[in-house]
Amino acid sequence: MWKRLIIVTLLVAIAAIAGFVRSHKGAGLSDFNNATGQTREDKRESYELAPGARVEVFNINGSVNIETSDSKTADIYIERSGPSAESLNSRRVDIEYNSNTLKIYGSKGNTGFWARLFSSSPSERVTLKLPRQIALFAKGINGPIVAGDVEGSLEVRGVNGRVQVGSASGTADLRGINGNVVLALKQLNLDAVSLSGINGNIELRLAAGLNGYLDVKGINGRLVADGAPVSIEKGRRGRYWAQIGSGGNSITAKGINGNIRVTIPVAPALTAEAGTASATVTAK
What we know:
The protein has 284 residues and is mainly beta. The chain contains four helices and 23 strands. Mean pLDDT is 83; it is low at 15-31 and 270-278.
């Protein structure tokens, strides 16, 4: 008897919750439906940033595309889409701004617990046009990140997708990335570049004439160099050392589940004398 009563009570509760969700479906944000039946919301903002401003992008459920130029203006375009207005209401993308700091981040919406529980999360796509002279921080991105040249510090963490950066000339710290990484470097400062916890292949595109060292620990893959003046020593248990050109400051990489490929444009004089250069690998 008690078991039947409990079962009936649960069924009534489930029916009540389902009715609540249906009664609130479509309430809230006013959007428009596209040809696929999805509800979409677009947001555009523009701000002026001081040279060297910090830009943070985090907790985004989708892709992030960043174009950089010599401008002082940050142009922001955010596209969000989901099966209903209720889905869009379950999350939002906020913007915080002053001349030295710009933050773009996802957060919980204004809907109640049950509405968030039964509605699907919207997908988000963030497109930014930013000055080159910025410090860029990205974290918690559920999608790919593609960025242009960054002339300040670069920090990317917790990305479920590929990461590609046109070039970095300051410090660079990339960690916890589930996807391939393409990183171009114009120069190496002291303790400039750190790569860790990368589940994918890494391509390092180094500027011609760049000198330094590459220290690799715990790699489940190989270190190779194409057309680059790089001398490689291979150790045990996924350990590699490499001298780039005449040596200098270091790039460190650890916990890499994939291959690392180093490419450097060959200087014309070297091409004329010896053709395409190749890396020398020495077992240690």
